Amino acid sequence: MNEAHQILLQEMGYTLWQLRQPQVTGDMPEQECRETVVLESPVVPVAVAQPVPEVPAPVAPAVVPAGAAEPAAMPPGTDARAARIARMDWDELARAVQECRACELCKQRQQAVLGVGDRQADWLFVGEGPGAEEDARGEPFVGQAGKLLDAMLAAIGLRRGENVYIANAVKCRPEGNRTPHADEMAACRPFLMRQVELLQPRIMVLLGKAAVHSVLGEDKSLASMRQKLFRAGEVPVLVTYHPAYLLRNLPEKAKAWEDLCLARRQMQGRPGN
Ligand code: SF4
Q1: Is residue 54 part of a domain?
Q2: DSSP 116-139
Q3: Does any domain span residue 103?
């Protein structure tokens, strides 16, 4: 395990222990054996004998169909608006998002935040909505949660902007970082769906309940939805915790790590990867 991996695993909430076996004497040559043990969390003494942070043994996730197609009642005129958005290219989409006043969230934004990253990306990560820093800088996930997301990406060999695109369920900042309302997510959903169509990612990872609600139309607990494979059209979808939640609930980082491993396995198990 190299130093970078160790730092990343520690950032993800893993504690690394170096165990040294007793030296062997007698006829056998003297030797030193080192084994790296990865603990799920600093306080849970569950040892997994993995010399490197390998993906756990593959377990095929159940494929679960997405929930309701539309998570909230759509206001009049939505179909025509959604149809217009569905024909936009990237530049038109970026302009439309900046000019959009389709929901209350437009009132307190400094700017709408479309998303960031590689527009040919295989990986799409979807969060909730911009916070204060994102609203000011026009980029999703740039605060503490963004740092953790970057560490999570690095832990599975990914990097922001390289084969990765990051978007949010709503493009404008909810006041006080509250959870976006269902009607706000519904109003913004055509933008997200158009991003998915333009990107055609090979996998989508939903970070937190708002993203799950927006994309899958589900309001179940994340605990019941993670480690399962969903689909949004042709795109495989996996669910995990939002980095901001993980910052407040450190032991859950180990579960997020499992979810990212599942996402990586899903990608590795597909032809052409
Ligand atoms: S959150 Fe989405 S739907 Fe609402 S104003 Fe912003 S861009 Fe428009």
Answers
A1: no
A2: EE-TT-SEEEEES---HHHHHHT-
A3: yes
Residues of the domain holding 109: 62-267
Q: How many helices (H) and strands (E) does the chain have?
A: 10, 10
- Mutate-to-test residue for ligand 1 from 168, 184, 185, highest number of ligand atoms within 8 A of CB: 184
Q: Which of 173, 188, 189, 192 to mutate to test the pocket of ligand 1 (most atoms within 8 A of CB)?
A: 188
CA of 170 to the centre of ligand 1 (A): 6
pLDDT digits (tens, 9 = 90+) for 121-168: 999 999 999 999 999 999 999 999 999 999 999 999 999 999 999 999
Q: Which two tokens stand for residue 50?
A: 């993995």
Q: What is the pTM of this model?
A: 0.77
Residues with CB under 6 A from ligand 1: 97, 100-103, 105-106, 112, 170-172, 184, 187-188
C-alpha radius of gyration, the chain, whole number: 21
Model confidence pLDDT, tens digit, residues 219-233:
999 999 999 999 999
Q: Is residue 212 part of a domain?
A: yes
